[in-house]
Amino acid sequence: MRNKILLILLLPAFIIVSSNAYSKGPAKIKAKTSDLCSDCHEMLDAKFSAPAKAYSKDIHKSKGVTCAGCHGGDASKEDQEAAMDKKKGFIGIPSNLVRYKTCVKCHSDEKEMAKYGSKIKTDQFENLKNSVHFRQTAEGSEFITDCITCHGVHNITNVKAADSKVNPLKVPALCGSCHSNVNYMKKYNQKLPTDQVEKYKTSLHGQMNAKGNTDVAECVNCHGNHGIRKIKDPISTVYPWNIPKTCANCHSKPELMKKYNLPSNQFDEYASSVHGKAVLKKFDVSAPTCNSCHGSHGATPPGIESISNVCGTCHNFNGELFAKSPHKAAFDKKHLPECETCHGNHGIKQTSEEMIGIGEKSVCIKCHKDNNDKGYEVSKIMWRLLDSLRTDTVKATNLLNRANDLEMDVSDAVFALKDVKQILIQSRTQTHLGNLKDFQEGIKPGFEMTRKAITSGNEAIDDYYFRRSGLGIATLFMAVLAIVLYMKIKKIEKK
Amino acid sequence: MSNKPNIIDKAYNWLDNRFQLNDLVHFLQKKSVPKFRSSIWYYMGGIALVLFIIQVLSGILLLMYYKGTEDQAFESVQFIITKVHFGWLVRSVHSWSANLMVFFAFLHMFSVFFFKSFRQPRELTWYTGFIMLLMCFGFGFSGYLLPWNELSFFATKIGTDMVGQVPLVGHWMLRLLRGGEDVTGATLSRFYGIHVAVLPLIFTSLLTAHLIFIQRQGMHEPESWKNKAESEKTYMPFFPNFILRDLLLWLIVLNLLAMLAVYFPWELGHKANAFAPAPKGIRPEWYFLFMFQALKFIPGKIGPIDGELIGLALFGAAGLLWFLVPFWDRKNQSVQWNKKLNYIGIFVVMFIIVFTILGIILE
Question: Predicted ipTM?
Answer without folding.
Answer: 0.79
